[in-house]
Amino acid sequence: MGTSHYMDLFLVRHGVTDWNKEKRYLGHTDRGVLMSELTQLKKLQKELAELSFDHVFTSDLRRCLETLAYLNVPAQVSVDTRIREINFGDWEGKTYNELKDNQIYRDWLNNWENLSIPNGESADTFKARIDTFIQDLLQHPFESTPNEKKLFLIMTHGGVIRYIVSKFVPSIAFWELSVPHGHGIHLTLVKHKGEWACNSLSVVPFQEKEK
Fold first, then answer.
1. Entry's InterPro entries (predicted)?
2. What domains lie within the chain, and their CATH numbers?
3. Contacts 24+ apart (CB under 8 A), 159-163
4. What positions carry a catalytic annotation?
5. Among 24, 106, 206, 207, which residue's beta carbon has the most beta carbons within 10 A?
């Protein structure tokens, strides 16, 4: 049968900022979270407290650091710039209504993977830095224990979560996935015969069925 290794990735989106409330593009601009909104994360805080993470990785931007501080997860933390949101360049702080008549913007919406944001980041650059993060993560050493599982929390941004999920679950397109602030995706990956694949996806925090 051979030995399989398992990895649980909890991909959590940061809390709400003022620009998020105003529906402004927010990439590398360093806005903090609205502290008044953090109390909405109590269910997430409780759920994560019941888990024993091997490590926590977070974007270096304030909105992620402040959200993580509020959640108070008892694990070693590494700050990693590779899991920042895409850099929106000239569109940082702008709204859809402010950009909708810009032809370059409209073309980008229809073909974001092949067109770059003015003075911002291309899809290839965005994906490449996240890919290097994932490659390092998947090389995390396992003991010889059969069926060992590692648990990692990744505090990051909506675009990063969309890309990681679409990478491991090809049936889910990048724009198809919507992750609210203070929520996330739980992926279970299994490594068998040297290859990693996703065998489970669920939302975080767990959504209880209505009675």
1. His_Pase_superF_clade-1 (IPR013078), His_PPase_superfam (IPR029033), Phosphoglycerate_Mutase (IPR051695)
2. 5-85+126-204 (3.40.50.1240)
3. 159/85, 159/86, 159/126, 160/11, 160/59, 160/83, 160/84, 160/85, 160/130, 161/11, 161/13, 161/185, 163/126, 163/127, 163/130
4. 14, 85
5. 24
For the chain, the 3-state helix, strand and coil shares in percent, each to the nearest 5, are 35, 20, 40
Q: Mean pLDDT for the chain? A: 92
Q: Euclidean distance between the first and final Cα of the chain, in Å?
A: 42
Residue 61 and residue 158 in contact, taking contact as beta carbons nearer than 8 Å: no
User: Which helix or strand (DSSP H or E) is residue 116 part of?
Assistant: none
Q: Is 204 annotated to bind ligand? A: no
Taking a C-beta distance cutoff of 8 angstroms, is the pair 157, 13 a contact?
A: yes
Tell whether the model's pLDDT for residue 112 goes beyond 90: yes
Chain centroid to Cα 76, Å, comes to 18
pLDDT digits (tens, 9 = 90+) for 145-164: 667 789 999 999 999 999 99
17 among the known binding-site residues? yes
pTM tops 0.85, yes or no: yes
Q: How far apart are CA 133 and CA 150, in angstroms?
A: 16
Tokens of 132: 């290097």
Do the annotations mark residue 63 as ligand-binding?
yes
